[in-house]
Design goal:
By secondary structure, this protein is α+β, with helices and mostly antiparallel strands. The protein is 42% helix and 14% strand.
Length: 184
């Protein structure tokens, strides 16, 4: 709390000094001032997201250790119905179900029913072309079913640096709110 108050005071102080500086000299272009204003805001964002990012990174590194072990993943258990899920779409090759920790009003995971060595997109081979196409087409069907076909995002995290936490290729279909750019 004290850090946030200090940060707010710093930002306010910097803004006041910047405005005085602008008033004193009209010859300085505004583009020279923006880096001064943005720096505290970026710092605040970093502070608020460090813990969540750190936890995600730790989980991703831990998951990567067993990525190629061939052991069943949580998604394999959902496919076999050992773990319940809310299924949104299913066909012979693909299963789509709601994420248990949604990051948007619509957050559905789309997975291949057969992993076949496809633990992450970075390990895709020529033989995976068909299933990759089916996954993207299923994402489009999910968006239609969920009523977000006018605007949705498809995300694939590949590897620990991208915070992939389950090594069974999966697509996140996100929608139902305004997406921001850049992501991440």
């Amino acid at each position: 709390m004290a850090a946030m108050n200090s940060l707010s005071l710093l930002r306010a102080s910097l803004s006041v000094r910047t405005l005085k500086f602008i008033g004193a000299s009209n010859r300085i272009p505004q583009t020279a001032i923006f880096p001064l204003i943005r720096r505290p805001l970026q710092f605040r964002r970093v502070i608020s997201s460090v813990r969540a990012t750190s936890d995600e990174e730790i989980a991703a590194r831990a998951a990567a250790v067993d990525a190629d072990s061939g052991a069943p993943t949580i998604f394999d258990k959902i496919i076999s119905k050992d773990i319940p899920s809310t299924i949104v779409y299913e066909d012979e090759f693909v299963l789509a179900f709601r994420d248990i920790s949604p990051q948007a009003p619509v957050h559905v995971l789309v997975i291949p029913k057969l992993r076949n060595g496809l633990t992450e997109l970075g390990k895709a081979e020529k033989r995976h072309e068909e299933v990759l196409g089916r996954l993207l087409y299923a994402a489009k069907i999910v968006a239609e079913k969920e009523g977000v076909s006018d605007g949705f995002r498809v995300v694939i995290n590949s590897g620990p640096s991208a915070c992939q936490s389950v090594y069974h290729l999966h697509l996140h279909v996100l929608g139902g709110r305004q997406m921001k750019w850049p992501p991440g």
